[in-house]
Write a structure and sequence with these properties.
The chain is mainly α. It has a single domain, classed as lambda repressor-like DNA-binding domains (434 Repressor (Amino-terminal Domain)). It is about 70% helix and about 0% strand. It contains seven helices and no strands.
């Protein structure tokens, strides 16, 4: 599980600089940097602050933070098949433009 990478992806997708997220959450930029690089795991309280600032549910970060090493060997083939689509859909939820999200949903239904 790499929550830091997921936070970085969402932050960048939204066009938010690290120092801006730091100001929005009240978390020092040093701590935020350590979380994003995986040196530090965010507490539940810290993760909630980040999710609130990014306007995403924590479950979205857990999905985006999932890694191959988190998956049992017997499930890796299905993970490799499904995860790229799941990740793409999750990132569409992060979009700042609801029209983009709906277009992605409609495309996936066709």
């Amino acid at each position: 599980m790499n929550l830091g990478k997921a936070i970085t992806s969402v932050r960048k997708q939204l066009g938010i600089k690290q120092y801006e997220l730091s100001e929005m959450t009240g978390i020092s930029q040093t701590s935020l940097s350590q979380i994003e690089t995986g040196l530090k795991r965010p507490s539940t309280r810290t993760l909630k602050k980040i999710c609130d600032a990014l306007q995403v549910p924590d479950s979205l970060l857990y999905i985006l933070g999932m890694q191959d090493t988190d998956i049992p060997e017997s499930k890796k083939a299905i993970y490799a098949l499904l995860f790229p689509s799941i990740k793409s859909l999750a990132m569409q939820m992060v979009s700042t433009n609801d029209n983009e999200v709906m277009a992605g949903v409609e495309a996936s239904q066709n």
